[in-house]
Automatic annotation (TrEMBL):
Protein localization: Membrane
Membrane topology: Multi-pass membrane protein
EamA domain span: 9-140, 153-288
Keywords: Membrane, Transmembrane, Transmembrane helix
GO CC terms in record: membrane
The protein's name in its UniProt record: DMT family transporter
Length: 311
């Protein structure tokens, strides 16, 4: 049952984060990036802290690893990851940003080889990462001219993906006693404070009055409730039970979700090349997860085979 639950959480994570790119784009029309990101985590932290206090026994940090886990989440996976991504997207196209951010599983593999020897991928698994990244490129298909122009935005997006990759590996090395939801909640609280500080230090105008308009309330509600409180709780719950390399493969599914959402909600077309990209991404997943797929197929075939009667 837990296997199916984790598969459902993985799909939810891809859908929630895939829709977040649209919400971010809308919200950035009214608020500066760091302030918008800080408000997002204000909402997410408030929801998760209350939930952890009510529904979890171990919700307050106590041990050294508890506090270190909160700092890793707050610094690497919230502040640096989102601050760099929000600012970087102002200087490059969404398509190029999606490609660069999809380096996350590759970068995670690099960190895991040094810090988590037991999580190393086989040569076929590494090939699967490359195949999946090629599929993302086919789905997004950025303008080739934009791949070479504007280095600042691209470096910021790569920095964001690197921060997520390193943070997820560091978190896997720790053994916090608090529940993953509580760790996520307090990490968001730390991240929100740091992002508010960065917003003030960067001279962003408060413009809190703009946060009351529907053009901000709607995307902020989606980001805070679904893409932050819900999705991050799912993400860190998965990291407790699975390799960060495997969990960060969600970065390959996000462009697929975005493309389908654009087709359903905005009437955008799904070209044959996009469909081929979907299939290539799935092939990459199959290479990375081939052992789990083979084990599932073997178990299903055993369960589906009727027992023979000895005459």
């Amino acid at each position: 049952m837990s296997r199916y639950r984790d598969a459902a959480l993985f799909v939810f994570l891809a859908v929630a984060w895939g829709g977040s790119f649209v919400a971010i784009e809308v919200g950035l029309e009214s608020l500066p990036p760091l302030l918008f990101g800080a408000l997002r985590y204000d909402v997410g932290a408030a929801i998760l802290v209350v939930y952890a206090a009510v529904a979890r026994d171990r919700w307050l940090p106590r041990t050294r690893d508890d506090y270190l886990a909160v700092l890793v989440v707050g610094v690497f996976l919230i502040t640096a990851a989102n601050g760099l991504l929000f600012v970087g997207q102002q200087y490059t196209t969404g398509g190029v940003a999606a490609i660069l951010y999809s380096l996350n599983p590759v970068l995670t593999t690099g960190f895991a080889r040094s810090l988590l020897p037991g999580d190393r991928l086989s040569p076929l698994g590494l090939l699967g990462l490359v195949v999946g990244l090629a599929g993302v490129t086919l789905v997004v298909r950025p303008d080739p001219a934009n791949l070479l122009a504007g280095a600042t935005g691209k470096l910021l997006v790569v920095g964001s993906a690197t921060s997520v990759a390193l943070g997820s590996v560091l978190l896997r090395r720790l053994r916090p006693s608090t529940d993953s939801t509580a760790t996520t909640a307090w990490g968001m609280f730390v991240g929100a404070i740091l992002m508010h500080g960065a917003s003030l230090a960067g001279g962003e105008p408060p413009r809190l009055a703009d946060a009351l308009g529907p053009q901000v309330v709607v995307p902020l509600a989606y980001l805070g409730v679904v893409a932050t409180a819900g999705a991050y709780a799912a993400y860190f719950g998965l990291l407790e039970r699975h390799s960060p390399v495997q969990v960060n493969l969600v970065s390959y599914l996000v462009p697929m979700v975005t493309a389908v959402a654009g087709w359903v909600l905005l009437g955008e077309s799904l070209t044959p090349v996009t469909i081929v990209g979907f299939l290539v991404i799935l092939a990459g997943f199959a290479l990375v997860k081939r052992e789990a797929l083979v084990a599932f197929a073997d178990r299903y075939s055993v369960e589906a085979t009727p027992p023979t009667r000895n005459e």
